[in-house]
Amino acid sequence: MGNSRKRVLIIGGGFGGLFCARRLGGVDVDVTLLDRAAGHLFQPLLYQCATGTLGFGQISRPLREEFERHRNVTTLLGDAIDLDPELRRVTARRPDETTFTLDYDVLVVAAGMQQSYFGKEHFAEWAPGMKTLDDALNIRQRVFTAFEIAETLPPGPERDGWLTFAVAGGGPTGVELAGQIREMATRTLAHEFHSIEPKEARVLLFDGGERVLKAFCSELGEKATKSLQKLGVELHMGVHVTDVNRDGVTVTPKAGGPDEQYAARTVLWTAGVEAVPFARHLAKVLGVEADRSGRIAVGPDLSIDGRPEIFVIGDLAGRENLPGVAENAMQGGLHVASCVRRELAGKPRRPFRYRDLGSAAYIARRQALLQVGPVKLAGFFGWLAWGFIHIAFLTGVRNRVSTVTTWLTTIARENRGHRAFMLGATGLPEQRYTWTTWDALTPPPPESPPDGNDR
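RE: above sequence
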């Protein structure tokens, strides 16, 4: 790339990074998009992959394919680990543990958030989160394997434990997972086993709040509660999950009282999020304020005070209670691209204005919620609106067509065509190209659990 043009470095290929790079495609700047996955993931539909409705390719797309027509956009695989604000240089790590550097004139940090266990990282061994494709594959293996193991056991407590699924967190992801597991047990798997009755599987949902989906109005929250209960999901509100182990979970009532233990061999965690390690490093290096979850304080234009060349967007932007939703990241990405374009034209930046496009949550077949300003939809019409909104935002025409086809087929047949899972081979050497060991070296500081809100 030439050295005379402005260099824009975007860290993160999620919604914020993707929309920013798209808007700068063809502009007289050199854009580098650095991502640790080399692909864009449509995270709101991740739980549908975990429960076998959609395949991974239907909600993800390689970044190189996305930007192959934009000659001024370069995509690179790497994990940002260090920032030198004086040299305007970022150091990134390759999957083989070597490093390389990238210089910038404008830095856009769109790295997103990761699952938070509130300082109890050992929970992750028994309770996977829901943030990546690997997480979805892990959950798919655990959920379907639980039924397979139960099939080989005689009636009794051990079998019951394998047929009990615990979900921590009553936000959209927790509600969606709980509803899908219960629906899968009562419909998809209902007649496929001989020794067990899948419909007898228990799904327990734990949350510290008074009701699920606190981001929605109370009317829709109540409808979600009734829909979940009708499915057979057991709601345990006003409690915090305080321990997770091989055999189940321990919960502590917020109002006081003795701890309660539940035997569940499959536990899923959606109870909180926190900043990725690079975001915490950036806040420390620049000496800027960050909240307890690691969200970084930004100015009206989403840049860091005193560092107008560094923007923070999406979930990481800590300003005016910006929500951790895809629409915020998309709008932030478009806003930063607009700032760059305006400066190229000799115009001043404009402040960022978030436009609330509403909230949506899927519960089960023909059951979803949609809240857009005064418009509130639930049940069948909420389900239709949910589907079309999510499909409209999918990256790539192929993804939209494939997802619509699969979705309609599922409606007609009540089938889940992506249930295949692999338990892994024994005796193989450990995979070299992984971030896992490095992620484990930088645990976040402990936090106090919130009432329960996953995104």
